[in-house]
Amino acid sequence: ARLLEATLAPESGVEWIREIDPASKAELSTFHTQEYLGLVERSSSGTRPVFLDTGDTPAFPGCWEASGRVASATVRAVALTRERDAPVFQPSGGLHHAHPDRASGFCIFNDVALAVRRGLDGGDRVAYLDIDAHHGDGVMYGFFDSGRVLDIDFHQDGRTLFPGTGFPNETGQGDGEGFKVNLPLPPGAGDEALVPLFRRVVPPLVREF
């Protein structure tokens, strides 16, 4: 919170982009199925409460537009990193549990996967690092067979936390074999466990990639 407040200060030099249009259906369909997009669109205009998964991701009036803005902002952030030699921060993003055909874990559209898709345009490769306590299952399985996406994920052991995935033996398949790196940590692990592992694993993997 202190870091975010500091960026709001006039002297911070941070440029804020406050107006983002929702992602189009065509943009969303680069990762999500048409059937699922139709469900979200219909649910967004309804008045009765419905769930977009088995019970933890509710639809709400306007969820199509709200979730579409999050997705659009993350994709825009990736574009900005190509245009400028400066870091870009998207505070509402990181909805890494959504799958192509379903919501999950409060995530309706997988903005991360959509941004990865955009990053792959033109033949580029993408190295994705996830340090959320929850494993980014939607991203990993979405690119499980791709050797163009290096997915390194630090998270709490899936035996103790949702979504119950992200084990070391989940390394990808086909062309993606070896490009999915899961580093589960025990509950309560902090910087003393994460930082040395990060320094030992991440730089050499990214350099080799």
TrEMBL record:
EC numbers: 3.5.1.98
Listed Gene3D superfamilies: Histone deacetylase domain (3.40.800.20)
GO biological process: epigenetic regulation of gene expression
Record's GO cellular component terms: histone deacetylase complex
Hydrolase among keywords: yes
Keyword annotations from UniProtKB, A to Z: Hydrolase
GO terms assigned for molecular function: histone deacetylase activity, hydrolytic mechanism
Domain Histone deacetylase: 14-209
InterPro entries assigned: HDAC_I/II, HDACs, His_deacetylse_dom, His_deacetylse_dom_sf, Ureohydrolase_dom_sf
One Pfam family it belongs to: Hist_deacetyl
Protein name as catalogued: Histone deacetylase superfamily
Originating organism: mine drainage metagenome
